Amino acid sequence: MNFKLFAGASRMARQAAKLASAVVIGLAVVGTPASAVTVEHGGVSYDFSTVEGTFNDNQELLESQFWWGNYRLSENLAHEIGVTLGLPYTAYGEPFGPLFANGPTGTNQIQSDFFASVSGHSFWHATGPDTVQTWAVATMVAAVPLPAGGFLLMSGLAGVAGLRRLKKARA
To answer: Superkingdom of the source (predicted)?
Structure first.
């Protein structure tokens, strides 16, 4: 009778190990959200996406971007990201990407840079603060803390070891 209880507990432990392995593998696959493009600047990774609306509606967000006030950086980012965030505009017969707002022009307009897909260059652009545009924005990618990464690695290794033991026991 005690042997049957032990065998039942062992079977439950194997099933729990399978479930834990599946959970760990699932977390590894879906734990990181997809993003349009990730760029590293100054040793920090940023996920880039876009927002729609006027500058006035998004002023706080746009002025908080790490390239705000730096025309060269804005231009370089527009060129580096290119068409990966889409081509929401067409001007002069050429599609171009979202605007990288980088500061006021002094004439009640916002200075921005964009990437033109046909010529392959980034260009300067001025737009009114109340004109609806597609703006590029970035959020800092949170690094996985080492203790959490270590726990995830150890859990995955334990799951693989459990599956190997299960396979050997069945053979």
So the answer is: Bacteria
